[in-house]
Design brief:
By secondary structure, this protein is of the alpha/beta class. The protein contains 16 helices and 12 strands. The strands form 3 sheets. It has an 8-stranded parallel β-barrel with strand order 3-6-7-8-9-10-11-12, surrounded by 7 helices. A two-stranded antiparallel ribbon has the order 1-2. The radius of gyration is 22 Å and the shape is globular.
Length: about 450
């Protein structure tokens, strides 16, 4: 379905109801007028009033623990949660798997200082490593304890899709966990049961068929959606978001959005793309384009953002507190920007860190993020004949050593493959590390 037709047919009426009509809106280049008023979306299935900006708890700020490790900065988390709730953010998404198991406890500590009715908790059954009934049940009850609550507002089967029906049965059916979750829902410990998806089209279709034939009733679904993945997913490991959205929309299943910024890449787009965005909206951030894209679609319940400090939190609250939906022409503009972005040789890493820790100590996400930043910032040496090649070479090598310890760099990967099954993007991680290691060696030897 073409973007223009899709918005016209399924979204125009709902967008007009939820947001100011495009014909009457003020230009976003003007300074916001009046107080912030968080954009709220009503869940049509239960009447929940949910903030269109959701707080993703996968990227809480971390500090050194004094013992060579890293722990969540609870004081900073408390401050961010207080500010978010004060400004209308009420949906918080976490998981037992986030930040090496620390995320839920930090979220529970911060949120429990507020009335339970002032926020919605979303967490997940992340039983990747041990899908036994005993381990899965323990994970469920541990989450209740960590989050200081006796019920979950939104509970997800975490990252289903890879391996299709067989993998789903192994994690949730053969062990009796689906029945267990249905019992918890009947008892009021789960208000809404859904899933987050990573996989191929035929795998997604399987879960929609389960919904259609009454085998499973999905209260909501969490998908990766942004203006690049809308029409430029690889079609093998990941599905174009326009297809996912259309399938969920026609079934009237509320949608939660993850990775609206593609792990931060859409907040740091290549210089030429950023310049075009700034020419159109000088006072709007590059990231705000991505958030507005997602929230323009009416079936979207909330858009998750993993905010690590107060700066992006305040900026995102501004975006959603003075929300302006995109026009058709602006959406077409973003499609052109997405097409241009696909020409850059970046690694599709969202910095989720599911691949960590690497058994051989490789800083996988750090290596990918450094490489992607160089490409985005235009400091990517492509050839010895390139202008300022020597300067670009030195900048990359020096910044690489500063960003990633030498013993944790790409050239130390032995291609054991341990990381492959953990990557929700299905990145061929050893191959990409080898490519970056080869690029670095070519830089050192001046053989580009």
């Amino acid at each position: 379905m073409k973007r223009r037709d899709f918005i016209t047919i399924s979204g125009a009426a709902a967008i007009a109801a939820a947001c100011a009509p495009a014909t009457n809106r003020k230009k976003a280049t003007s300074a916001p007028e009046g107080p912030e008023q968080m954009l709220m979306r009503e869940n049509p299935r239960n009447g929940d009033k949910i903030s269109a900006l959701g707080f993703g708890c996968m990227r809480w700020p971390m500090i050194d623990d004094g013992k060579g490790g890293r722990v969540i900065d609870q004081e900073a988390v408390n401050e961010m949660v207080d500010y978010a709730i004060e400004h209308g953010v009420n949906y918080f998404d976490t998981s037992p798997a986030y930040l090496q198991g620390q995320s839920e406890k930090a979220a529970g500590t911060a949120l429990s200082r507020h009335p339970r009715s002032s926020y919605y908790i979303a967490t997940k059954l992340s039983n990747f490593g041990d899908a036994s009934a005993q381990a899965s049940r323990k994970m469920f009850f541990d989450s209740l304890e960590q989050l200081h609550t006796d019920y979950f507002d939104y509970y997800l089967l975490h990252a289903i899709g890879r391996g299709g029906r067989a993998a789903f049965n192994n994690r949730y059916v053969d062990n009796g966990i689906i029945e267990f979750l249905q019992e918890q829902k009947a008892a009021g410990r789960i208000r809404n049961l859904g899933f987050s998806f990573h996989g191929a089209k035929h795998e997604f279709d399987t879960f929609m068929e389960m919904h259609d034939n009454g085998e499973m009733f999905w209260d909501f679904c969490q998908i990766e959606m942004n203006y690049v993945d809308w029409a430029h997913a690889d079609g093998v490991r990941n599905v174009n978001a326009d297809y996912l959205y259309a399938e969920l929309d026609k079934r009237e299943i509320p949608i939660v959005i993850m990775e609206p910024l593609l792990g931060g890449r859409l907040a740091r787009v290549p210089e030429g793309i950023a310049r075009q965005m700034k020419e159109r909206e000088p006072d709007c951030s590059v990231a705000s384009w991505a958030f507005r894209f997602c929230a323009t679609y009416p079936r979207v319940l909330t858009v998750l953002s993993g905010m690590t400090n107060m700066d992006p939190l305040k900026e995102n609250i501004q975006t959603f507190g003075h929300f302006q939906p995109l026009t058709e022409e602006e959406i077409e503009f973003l499609e052109r920007m997405a097409t241009q972005m696909m020409e850059f040789p970046m690694v599709n890493c969202t910095d989720c860190k599911y691949c960590m820790p690497c058994p051989w100590g490789i800083d996988i996400p750090g290596t990918f993020q450094h490489y992607n930043r160089a490409v985005t910032d235009g400091t990517y040496a492509q050839s010895t004949a390139q202008k300022d090649y020597a300067k670009l070479k030195k900048a990359y090598l020096v910044s690489y050593d500063r960003a990633v310890a030498t013993v944790r760099q790409a050239d130390h990967c032995i291609a054991c493959g341990e990381c492959l099954s953990h990557c929700p993007q299905s990145i061929p991680i050893p191959d990409q590390l080898k490519r970056i290691a080869r690029y670095v060696e070519n830089l050192k030897q001046d053989t580009l």
